[in-house]
Design brief:
42% of the residues lie in helices and 14% in strands. By secondary structure, it is an alpha/beta fold. It has a nine-stranded mixed beta sheet. Strands 17-18-19-21-20 form a five-stranded mixed beta sheet, with helices on one face. It has a four-stranded antiparallel beta sheet with strand order 10-13-14-15, with helices on one face. Keywords: Iron, Iron-sulfur, Metal-binding, S-adenosyl-L-methionine. It comes from Streptomyces katrae. This is Radical SAM/SPASM protein FxsB, inactivated metallohydrolase extension form.
């Protein structure tokens, strides 16, 4: 069964005539002339029935808020009394059901205090149509006798911008005409201090193409890019929805306007007689294009939602033409406005009549903004580390929100706050334990348990208390750190495993930092000391490995109970001899990488927090494994030889780095919407898989060439995959930047 969409926005035609004679108006000047047979003004009966239908729809779909846009013709011609009735009826009908956002789109000619006082009473926001300075506006927006409307619109805007009404000012809508001076148009609009400007392409189809005075297929793009450049030089004095929508989709975010992007449309139009229609712009295509055959008296909104024409605009990527689906900018342009795709012989299964303009506009905005829109984590490892730590803190705060009612959790959280407030030493110590890769693993597992209805507050509290105690000890803080232990032991993240009782026992103990290390205090006295210099058999410290001079030590993590986050199980605690033997293999593997691929070798340990020995022999190639969650966690088969260990370090960190990037930066959107041929796989793969394969194999190719073990045609396959990625519509500006980096890496390998 197909799910019915919910309409969150309705356009209510309150008057079907206009006091201007704009020659580019889709209502009066284009193919559909149905306005001639409709009442001039909406009736009280239609108003009341529409409000009831909308409230019913909002209740059925649990919609939190709905937008009602009063439209025309010119809606102010309905008069203040009829508009008051609209406000009253919709406010009453939706009270207690959904929040009501009332708006009106007007040419401004009738706007006066009596209207604005009414709008202030009901919070109706006002958008005004204006095409720029007087010369631009008079090109189309004139009275029937040819008189200019510009002075009256400016007077209305001056009133709207005055102190009592400024909060009602929603913005300006400007229809593009390439015969106008784009800079003069922008500056005239900016001078009116709108909260937002919308630039709209004039409605056109393949049957009635847009005016192109110079015959160029990209005239509208060039006009809009001149506006963009001036907007940038003015330091973006007002929001421009068209440009902000493009920037949002280029970063992987949603479209912000109906005319661009792949987001489904959730809008329905109610005419003055109660007829329910599709989006108004369809009137430009052909007579009856917007019709549904439904009305508010006989039909619910759900029936309109099931209409094939409405459904066609809910399909996202599947709803655009085959040509558009193959285009790398389709996520941003979305195939253009649905109306602009119309051709008589095949309907709407076409690219937009503005296709060339949209491609150049998207590319032009991307080229101008890519450098500053690229995620900083891509180029700066320190920024990536900061973002990862911030993500862990956000997730921990979310877990706190779920478990704050648990008394043991509340006690541990209070001590955590005390550590953070204990000056620089406390902050540094807390950063260290929160940066421990398996802290993230623990938090995510606990959040999963809460979501699945099996929260284990005591277990989560024990880990939080142990984590806080580790921070207290690391920082040498004079704070009491109470920990709970089970089965006779407690793991202190980043420090080690402390045995506090016999196997099978549980209890609590107080830990303190001392001058010589750490101490366990029970019954008011020091029970025993442990730590770096204590030599206590009850204390198993976390061992470390030093990759090289000046590089941070890496924890050889074979103690943390949350280290089981790899595809294969971890080894149990290594014996002293095994640990030394493993360090030796790691040293030799590191030396091999430095001799053969020094650039990749440095990257292989950058950001590496923990190395976990894994059980079993190496897989083909001996590749390492990134932890499922923990940033900086790497698993390496303990039994791997030096060459396999070197390859494990190299590829494992490449995998981990890409995973860490995707956790904090949008490299692609709509993953899985397209399937791409892969040189290494028999079936097409989503962009995430292809990018991961290429990201890893560039390093592998470098290593194999340097060691004389390369595969024939390996570089050619990588080049083909990079070419495919370069044309992938899913990639954001950050994803494209990463592909460029991979090309440079491969060029260095080829050289």
């Amino acid at each position: 069964m197909t799910r019915t969409i919910a309409f969150r926005e309705i356009v209510l035609k309150v008057h079907s005539r206009c006091d201007l004679a704009c020659d580019h108006c889709y209502v009066y000047e284009h193919a559909d002339q149905s306005w001639r047979a409709r009442p001039k003004v909406i009736s009280p009966r239609v108003i009341s029935q529409t409000a009831s239908r909308l409230a019913e729809h909002a209740r059925d779909h649990a919609i939190p808020s709905v937008t009602v846009i009063l439209h025309g013709g010119e809606p102010l011609l309905a008069g203040p009394d009829r508009l008051r009735l609209v406000c009253e009826e919709f406010t009453r009908a939706l009270s207690g059901t959904a929040e009501l956002d009332l708006r009106i789109h007007t040419n401004g000619l009738q706007l006066s205090r009596r209207y604005l006082d009414l709008f202030a009473e009901y919070g109706v926001r006002v958008g005004v149509s204006l095409d720029g300075d007087r010369a631009a506006n008079d090109r189309h927006r004139r009275f029937a006798d040819g008189r200019s409307s510009h002075p009256l619109v400016l007077a209305a805007l001056e009133l709207l911008r005055s102190a009592p009404y400024r909060h009602l000012y929603q913005g300006l809508l400007c229809t593009v005409d390439v015969a106008n001076d784009p800079v003069a148009v922008l500056e005239a609009l900016v001078a009116l201090e709108p909260p937002r400007v919308d630039f709209l392409l004039p409605h056109a189809t393949w049957e009635t193409p847009p005016e192109r005075p110079d015959g160029a297929p990209d005239a509208y793009a060039r006009w809009l890019l001149r506006v963009f450049d001036r907007w940038e030089r003015l330091e973006r004095p007002v929001p421009v929805r068209l440009f902000e929508s493009l920037e949002s989709t280029l970063r992987g975010g949603p479209s912000l306007t109906e005319s661009l992007g792949l987001a489904p449309t959730d809008l329905v139009v109610v005419e003055t007689d109660g007829t329910l229609e599709q989006v108004d712009s369809l009137k430009s295509a052909f007579d009856g294009a917007a019709a549904t055959g439904f009305d508010v008296f006989r039909h619910a909104f759900d029936e309109v939602a099931a209409h094939p024409g409405v459904r066609a605009r809910q399909l996202g990527l599947a709803g655009v033409s085959g040509t558009c689906r193959r285009c790398p900018v389709v996520r941003s342009c979305g195939g253009g406005l649905y109306t602009h795709r119309y051709r008589e012989d095949n309907g709407f299964d076409n690219p937009s009549v503005y296709c060339s303009d949209l491609r150049e506009l998207v590319d032009g905005v991307e080229g101008r903004t890519a450098a500053r829109q690229t995620a900083p984590e891509l180029a700066d490892p320190a920024e990536l580390a900061r973002s990862q730590e911030e993500l862990t803190r956000i997730l921990l705060a979310r877990l706190h929100g779920d478990l704050a009612g648990d008394p043991s959790w509340a006690r541990a959280w209070e001590l955590l706050a005390g550590v953070e407030g204990a000056g620089e030493a406390g902050a540094d110590a807390l950063d260290a334990v929160l940066g421990h890769p398996f802290t993230r693993t623990w938090v995510l597992e606990a959040l999963d348990a809460v979501r699945e209805g099996r929260p284990d507050g005591p277990a989560a509290s024990r880990r939080l208390a142990a984590l806080t105690a580790a921070a207290v000890l690391r920082g040498g803080l004079e704070l009491p750190a109470e920990v709970a232990y089970r089965d006779g032991e407690v793991y202190l993240p980043t420090l080690g495993l402390l045995r506090l009782g016999e196997p099978g026992t549980r209890g609590r103990a107080l830990l303190h930092a001392t001058g010589e290390g750490y101490a366990v205090v029970r019954a008011g006295r020091t029970e025993h000391r442990f730590g770096p210099a204590a030599g206590d058999a009850r204390w198993l410290p976390v061992r470390t490995w030093s990759p090289g001079p000046g590089e941070p030590a890496v924890a050889l993590e074979d103690l943390d109970p949350y280290r089981n986050c790899f595809a294969r199980p971890p080894r149990l605690r290594l014996g002293a001899g095994e640990a030394e033997e493993w360090r030796g293999r790691l040293d030799a593997a590191r030396a091999l990488l430095l001799r053969t691929v020094p650039g990749f070798a440095r990257a292989a340990v950058a950001g590496l927090g923990t190395l976990t020995p894994l059980a079993g022999g190496p897989r083909a190639g001996g590749w390492g494994e990134a932890g499922r969650h923990g940033p900086g966690a790497l698993g390496v088969p303990y039994a791997a030889g030096v060459r396999e260990t070197a390859l494990a370090l190299l590829t494992g960190r490449r995998r981990a780095r890409l995973r860490e990037l995707t956790e904090v930066a949008d490299l692609y959107a709509l993953d899985g919407a397209w399937q791409h041929p892969s040189p290494w796989r028999t079936r097409p793969v989503p962009v995430s898989r292809l990018l991961a394969d290429v990201h890893e194999r560039v390093a592998v190719e470098a290593y194999r060439r340097a060691t004389g073990t390369q595969e024939p045609g390996g570089a050619d396959r990588i080049h083909r995959a990079l070419d495919r990625l370069a044309e992938a519509a899913e990639l954001t500006v950050s994803g494209k930047r990463l592909v460029e980096e991979l090309r440079w890496e491969l060029k260095a390998v080829d050289a």
